[in-house]
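Structure catalogue
Derive tokens from sequence
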Amino acid sequence: MNRMMQEALHSNPVAAASDKYSLNIALLNARSAKHHFTDILAHPVLHTADIVCLTEANVYANSIKYYERQGWTLKFLEKSSVENCHGLLFFCKENCSVVYCTSLYVPHLEQLFVEISSTNCVSSLCLVYRSPSTTPGDFIADMTTTVSDRAPDVLLGDFSISLGPAHTDNCNNNFRTTNRW
């Protein structure tokens, strides 16, 4: 729990929320859901979220029952040692429904595309994880060919790159351009 609080984007993420948005989304790099799931379940911000996304979850299909929670819909991309895939978990509260979900793993990028419906909206979301062992160039190429085609309303994840340095200008430009990512 200590690591989660230290690495939070905001010291009080709920304060960053606005009434004009109909969904609260929380993202966490779990660094193994199996080892940290008790802390994840206890985190107060995650209790207020409508959607909880975990990257680097390290989950397998044969153990997914452990992560199921009453009142939540669970979708996942399982870990695969063959493909060096770390796994993604997506939880959606019962006030939202999952209309469509598909997972995609390409050599440099793990993705989970989800279309959700709530009383206020229908939105598409793309959860992404990029391993730091891959190059930013490979990440940009894979994002350009896979995510751009689907044009999600929300793109979130662990990109394992700094968006500040000059060598990521191409990535910054894609994030700034509304029709790309």
Q: What stands out?
A: The longest strand covers residues 96-106. Strands lie at 25-29, 51-55, 72-77, 88-93, 96-106, 109-118, 122-129, 154-158.
